[in-house]
Amino acid sequence: MQRLSQSKYFAALLLALFTLLAYGLLAHTAGFHWDDWGFAWAARFLGPENFIPSFAGFRPFLGPIFAITTSFIPPNPLAWQLFALIIRFLIGLCAWWMFRAFWPNQPRLALTTALLVLVFPGYSQHWVALTHINQELIPFILYMLSFGISAHAMRKGSLPLTIAALLLQFGGLFPTEYFFGMEPLRFLLIWFMLDTAFLPRLRRTLTLWLPYLLLWIVDGLWLVWFYRSGAYVSYGLESRHLDWMTALADAVFKAGFYVWGQVLLLAGSALPAPTSLLTFGLVAVSAVILSYALLRFPRPDEEPRSTPHLPVSILLIGLVGILLGRLPSLAAGLPLTLQSTFDRFMISMTLGGSLFLAGLVEFLFRRNDRLKIIVLSLVIALGVGQQFYNVNLYRRDWARQQEIYWQFAWRIPALKPNTLLLTDVIPNLPLETDLSFTAPINWMYAPEYSGGDLPYALLYAEARLGGGVLTGLQPGRALTLPFRTVEFHGSTDAALVFLVPGNGCLRVLDPALGDAVTYEKESETLTQIIPLSKPSLILTDAPQAQLSAPPFGAEPEHAWCYFYEKAELARQVGDWQKILDLGMQARSLGYQPEDVFEWLPFIEAQARVGDVDEALALSRDSIRQVGRVRKGVCHVWERVQAQVPERSASSSQALNEFGCIP
After folding, report:
1. How far is the CA of 289 from the CAs of 21, 23, 121, 356, 455, in angstroms?
2. Per-residue pLDDT for 237 more than 50?
């Protein structure tokens, strides 16, 4: 380690190691999340060049970044997760190079601050890779490179370097408004590099900063004009009125203090869960490795010189960085909520939050070098643990997505075009929206799509009702859903309603089966939309939908939900014997439902063509377990009585026994 710590590659190797520890251990278990699906679908079916017009009304300088990256990286979740590791390493490397440019005599401080930037735990969006690599992380890299090059340009008085820094500043500023508040940090970093009297120092700093200030002003004027022009197309997000002083204080607390220890609360509250134990184990290992490495770094001839004002200056720059980093999202009235999609705004506070903590630790422990290293190592290790905790959330999200996609494939072999899929919400997937599912549904059921109207759309009725897309639930209500540069045109007359329970399998709902009553304890919105459902939109005689891998995962083991979905499909076509065979096969393998409502097709098949006594016993057992399934059981026996005359006596017995007759 001593020889390695004296290598010129030591910092890069340490950054690479901590990139793997924080982001690489489970990278292969994450997939496409949130907006990734829409971008991946667009890249695959519309082509990378489509991102130019796609972003023209939102962020016109961002489209080229998407177009370039999607041209050489395929719409494969694993490819994007691996690319995210490279990007994350480059962020750490650029941060280290930038800090070295401003603090050439502080190699250890530059490295530890870069490590804080690398693992910054307030930002949990790393695994929404396709979206955030392009939308934020690449501009972030460009901006840090601009900072570093401007420091070298200042020392050398180099016009070419200044031009290069300005071009990189353009690449960090104009594609996204996230980093608009970062530019004043350059002024402060230059200020603290100089060591002259106040007025000469101010004049020199302003002179050096002037070209960057002018470009920053141009960007500000561009944003004001663009947002007020008819060219801008709003995302339609609901902004909130926020108290600025409270919001800024909240940002300082979260980015400067809370995020660095939040893993202790999040993982600690789930002890002794295996994920929590692994998280804390990784924190311990990371802290030991880093402490051992930093105690032997830098080389003896690079020992940092003592500069009493340095910790205070870093602390001040960090504080300003947090406050200014919050301004773009605060101006839009958007909240700063951790562990949600809204913590993407933390990327603009990453530099400020890392500098703030680095300066604070440097100030508090400036007289005890060993203790300072131990504290910094522990804090960085907590950042590693937080990111490991985060990837497990994405791992579960991706696994749950795969379950649902395959349940769709088993239950719905194919769909008539222009079908609208409606539900209230899909639970246990807080990272996904209805548009997150619209893209894979089209990928599944329109794999040969080559342009024109979008064939399918999936909407959360509860969230969309009353908005610009789903204006009402009356039959015959036309609707249009914009999706990238194409649109879905449909109607409530061509809708398929489904339910995904918290513990159970996907269910296509059918008003003809009395599902509005069977599922009346579900949300009010769901019961309102069940009468719109038309299972006849399912092409039941088509072969099972084959999900391409990638982006979908391989077909999972045929457990209970496989047999249930196939039984529901068989019930739709009246193949009662197949349902009996599926039920027998499932039971022989030891499978049974978590939700007793999933016994209903098997009860009906037994009652129609199988063992009536078995159907009665299964009905009794289901009602005994969950009383609210009784209405569903009643509907089964009512259909049997009406449609199978030879079962009339047994049906009457069941209807009386289960209280189905008032």
Report:
1. 11, 17, 19, 24, 53
2. no
Do residues 303 and 386 make contact, with C-beta atoms less than 8 angstroms apart?
Answer: no
Q: Provide CB contacts within 8 A for 308, sequence distance 6+.
A: 366
Strand order in the sheet with 419-423: 456-460, 419-423, 495-499, 507-508
Q: Point out the least confidently predicted range of 3-12, 110-119, 595-604.
A: 3-12
In this model, does residue 178 exceed pLDDT 70? yes
pLDDT-based confidence at 201, cuts 50/70/90? confident
| pLDDT tens per residue, range 582-630 | 999 999 999 999 999 999 999 999 988 888 889 899 989 999 999 899 9
Mean pLDDT, residues 220-233: 73
Show the DSSP H helices in 103-137 as ranges.
Answer: 107-119, 129-132
DSSP string for residues in 264-313: HHHHHTTTTSHHHHHHHHHHHHHHHHHHHHHTT-S-GGGPPPP-TTHHHH
CA angle 464, 469, 473 (to 5 degrees): 70
Please, are residues 316 and 359 in contact by the beta-carbon 8 Å criterion?
yes
Which domains are delineated in the chain?
A: 2-233+251-396 (no CATH), 414-540 (no CATH), 557-662 (1.25.40)
Dihedral angle of Cα 305, 373, 20, 23, to the nearest 10 degrees: -110
CA distance 219 to 225: 10
How are beta strands 478-483 and 486-491 bridged, if at all?
antiparallel
Average pLDDT over residues 215-223: 91
Under the banding of pLDDT at 50, 70 and 90, the label for residue 508 is: very high
Measured between alpha carbons, how far is 306 from 294 in angstroms, rounded to an integer?
A: 17
CA pair distance 383, 385, nearest whole angstrom: 5
Signed CA dihedral, 546, 552, 557, 562: sign only: negative
Task: Give all strands (DSSP E) within 565-636, no chain letters.
Answer: none
Alpha carbon distance 576, 567 (integer Å): 9
Which has more confidence, 607 or 83?
Answer: 83
Query: Scanning the structure block, which residue is given the tokens 């996907």?
Result: 506
- Give the per-residue pLDDT at 451: 86
Amino acid at 50: N
User: CA-CA distances (angstroms) from residue 22 to 36, 340, 399?
Assistant: 21, 19, 20
495-499 and 486-491 beta bridge pairing: unpaired
Q: Could you tell me the two tokens for 247?
A: 């919001």
